[in-house]
Amino acid sequence: MSDSLVIIPTYNEKENIERIIRKVFSLSYFFEILIIDDGSPDGTAEIVKNLQQEYPALHLEQRTGKLGLGTAYIHGFRWALARPQFQYIFEMDADFSHNPDDLIRLREACVNGADVAVGSRYVRGVNVVNWPMSRVLMSYFASMYVRLITRINIQDATAGFKCYRREVLATIPLDKIKFVGYAFQIEMKFTAIKYGFNVEEVPIIFTDRTEGTSKMSTRIFREAFIGVIQMKIWSWFRKYDRV
């Protein structure tokens, strides 16, 4: 049994899922894993089920249909909060764009005082591998845009590699998180900061996937662009009281 749970949402990740699971379980610190699969037609969930016979700390939640990244993580957060042993709860992609070795560094940041540790591509320059320049610029300036509108001092506002202390997810009203795509990552950081939690960035190197297909789209970016303004306006009418 571990105090740390890594949540990995999946949709058509058969090329990556076994390798990422084996890699996480090979780390020097023991993490449990929760896969949230949105009905992958490529058999991702079946691969996970087979691995569960080998790894008792591998958990699987299956959902019907592609319901969105944000709702997958919310599902995972609630699953984790229902199990008191999990004190550190992680978000991570299945495609190795997030290096599993960095899970240990993110956890250490939270053990040493952070409430949320963010694996940051931009806290020390630009640390992105295999992305076209157009996407690097879009991501970098998206974070600048978020800082301008929200006034939060996070260099990588759209980052999706994170560790939360349990208290953060128990405090944030998850049913009020509005966004399901790219903007979900921004909203979670913004909300944690509004509640007074300490969000720290941990430098990582982000490597674009080499297997499988990216789920990014212009619709997701559009949601984020408009969503940041909506989120800021909503915050003017919301109380952020910690019990």
TrEMBL record:
Coiled coil: none
InterPro entries xref list: DPM1-like, Glyco_trans_2-like, Nucleotide-diphossugar_trans
Pfam families attached to this UniProt entry: Glycos_transf_2
Tagged with keyword Metal-binding: no
Protein's name in the database: Dolichyl-phosphate beta-D-mannosyltransferase
The organism of origin for this protein: Pedobacter ginsengisoli
Entry's family note: Belongs to the glycosyltransferase 2 family.
Keywords tagged on the record: Glycosyltransferase, Transferase
The UniProt record lists the keyword Protein biosynthesis: no
Domain Glycosyltransferase 2-like: 6-170
Domain of life assignment: Bacteria
Signal peptide boundaries: none
Biological process according to GO: glycolipid biosynthetic process
SUPFAM superfamilies found in the cross-reference section: Nucleotide-diphospho-sugar transferases
GO molecular function terms noted in the UniProt entry: dolichyl-phosphate beta-D-mannosyltransferase activity
GO cellular component, one term: membrane
